[in-house]
Amino acid sequence: MVTAFSVETASQNSADVLEQELALAFPASGPHDRDLRLKLLRRLHAHYVAYMAGPEDFASIPRLNHDRSIAAIEDSWFAWEDRQVDQGDLPATGKEFRDWFLVTADRHTQPEFCEYLAKEASLNEIALFFMGEELVDSKFDDLMALVQIGTQGHTKLTIAENYWDEMGEGNIEHVHTRMFEHSARYMRARLDEAGVDYSNLHFPEAYENAALLLAYGIHRHLNPRALGAMGVLEQSASPRFQAMVDGCRRLEVPEDVIDYQRIHVHVDADHGAEWFEGVFVPLVDRSPELLREISLGVLTRVRVANGYYTRIWDAMQALR
Q1: For 63, which DSSP code?
Q2: Is 152 exposed, middle or buried (0-12, 13-18, 19+ CB in 10 A)?
């Protein structure tokens, strides 16, 4: 017989287990448990993807901030991420932000990884990388829509222009997520033909990288961090897209498969400059607190993504 006492006891036991897992996955200091970290970050990622589902899935879309265990994971994870940032690396004024941002973004270009993609990676390796990128790129237009909420003036217009590009400037065949899915289908088929195990992508850094942008976009109080993270992504993405195009052409991948990557070589370079002038410049002098939040978004994105690229490079090379 199930009693109120037994339900309460089970609930408390679950809470205790989660608390122990959080302490191991996101410790105050020292190494973390990678398996638990993967488990918790995958849970967050699944929650965010479910939250961003389409209208036809309305009955199963989770309510935001309703699940206490999700909130507990987020609190522990966000606190852990903040502890990885050296506060001395943050710019103190809006005037300092420009040079600081450009130097920081330059650390996010992964030149050695890009050279490997362009000149050495096999088709299976590049295909696996595409699958890793799918965790973020498949939701990028929705993220762009979310970050414009509440902005004004030139900031809103800059994000709107960026979103219009994501929408293929009104041509449904050129909608970026649609183009990306075309690329992903081709690469997924190559991996399936080769019998490649997708579990190669199941490492904490992949889900940390994907969940970070989704969390920043979904939670309104993290909007400044989302603006910072997406700004540095736009600023630094062009070399990776060029490397993907070069690598795919070397391997004679059909041109239509790399249309998405090809257009982003130039589009993201333009977006990076526009984002700096249209989004950052109007905001970074508003208050020291806002400057700090934007800068934290930049630094956290760079650190998390660099960790992801290191790990996915290892996973790619393991296929050789």
Answers
A1: P
A2: exposed
Instruction: Give domain status of residue 67, yes or no.
Output: no
CATH number of the domain residue 234 falls in: 1.20.910.10
**Interior CA angle at 156 toward 152 and 159, to 5°?**
160
Rounded distance, CA 144 to CA 252, Å? 32
Cα separations (Å) of 238 from 37, 184, 214, 269?
30, 19, 21, 6
Q: With left for phi above 0 and alpha for psi between -120 and 50, is residue 2 left, alpha or beta?
A: beta
pLDDT single digits (tens) 293-302:
999 999 999 9
Residue ranges for the chain with pLDDT beneath 70: 1-12, 268-269
What range does the domain containing 99 cover?
83-317
Sign of CA dihedral 25, 51, 307, 189: positive
Amino acid at 172: I
- State in Å, rounded, how far the first CA of the chain is from the last one: 56
Tens of pLDDT, residue by residue over 237-270, are 899 999 999 999 999 999 999 999 999 887 756 7
Output the six-digit token pair for 70. 């999700």
Indicate the number of domains in the chain: 1
Q: Distance (Å, rounded) from C-alpha 26 to C-alpha 34?
A: 10
Spatial contact of 207 and 42, defined as CB atoms under 8 Å apart: yes
Cα 203 to Cα 47, 180, 308, distances in angstroms: 18, 22, 9
Hey, what are 204's tokens?
Answer: 């904490």
